[in-house]
Amino acid sequence: MKKLRITETVLRDGHQSLAATRMSTDDMIPVLEKMDEIGYYSLECWGGATFDACLRFLNEDPWERLGEIKKRVKKTPLQMLLRGQNLLGYRHYADDVVEYFVQKSIANGIEIMRIFDALNDLRNLETAVNAAKKEGGHVQLAMAYTTGRAYTLDYWKKLADDMQSMGADSICIKDMAGILLPKEARKLVAALKETVSVPIQLHSHCTCGTAPIVYMEAAAAGCDGIDTAISPFALGTSQPATEVMVEAFRDTEQDTGLDQIKLAEIANHFKGIRDRFLDEKIIEPKVMGIDFEGLLYQVPGGMLSNLVSQLKGQKAMDKYDEVLKEIPRVREDLGEPPLVTPSSQIVGTQAVLNVLSGERYKIISKETKGILRGEYGKTAVPFNEEVLKKAIGDEKPVTVRPADLIQPELDSLEKELGSFKEKDEDILSYALFPQVASEYFKRRAARKEGLDPDRFDYTNKAYPI
Length: 465
Ligand code: CO
Fold this sequence. Notes:
Helices cover 47% and strands 9% of the residues. The protein is α/β, with parallel strands linked by helices. It has an eight-stranded parallel barrel with strand order 1-2-3-4-5-6-7-8, surrounded by eight helices. α9 (211-220) links the parallel β7 and β8 (225-228). Bound molecules: cobalt (II) ion (CO).
């Protein structure tokens, strides 16, 4: 057994999970040099929702954030999370955009790219993987963990093996809903260690309360690394606490060697930020507790709260139990996908439609049709034939890699952006979040001219749509 690797998530998943990704670069800067001295295996600091939140809510350029972090974190590898062909956005992008995004991310300081696809369809990872390899990045491929008929140990072993063949430098079990159980974790990690030679990392959430125990079991089975968050941004819907896991392995063969006194200094800094977020109600105390329903119903916690608000909106809370039973049935009809963005919303909404309309698939959402058409990729098991027929009739489904059907986009994006482009990376911000990035660029241009962005008249300016 080797010392256990610790990936610190406070700069990405920690605040994404607890504080709606609202931590600003200024909140981070004072402590970055200290964090670099800890000896973490890596610092997850970018990707996921951080990019969107920077532009949309914090009036920050995410590329500048990455630069500020890189300036201060010189020894510890910086890590990001990328949704394969979706990058950090909500649709599939053309290959040229994916390649350029990966190239620029690495050029700006990312060393480890954790890449995953919501359906575990490896074709949706190909372009990002090849681009990251070409730029000399460490490719960590993540398996979106879920349970169900299709998800046997053999399924995970084959997936891991295929990932290794694709060029993965390490493999992550990504348990976004926190539903992996201790004994399953032990079996899964042992099976993967038998199958592949690359290191295995485990990413989980304390949503259902079991994650710290799961980490212990996984480590006992030879897991090489775990994701943790410094205590003020740990537990609840976030990761297990760094200090607790470090202490749990002290004086064992997997001793992480991290210094608790130094970790306490990091924790002190983030306590201040956490307390401010609680005061400002950016952190809702309820996300700090345990929500066991996720395990009970095998549905991610966030999906259940969405469901409640959907049903309340329709004044149909009396149908809650019925919809809860419908969710796994819809999931099976749609090829039993892992319930993560976007499949969780698609399955949840369709289940609501099936119950409220009084007839299954009487109304079929556009997104459900999209999944059935193969627009998101291939699912673990085939679709329900009857539902497929009802949804798309004689239409020919997509069987190729979905991005093969998307024309190159970079040139036209650059043209649209016009004079608002100040640096190459702006094209990528614009590609991912056209409206939000445009707003940001407009305000940036106003500030540059010494004008108050809130009072600036943009009407005569040629700005991107
Ligand atoms: Co996560």
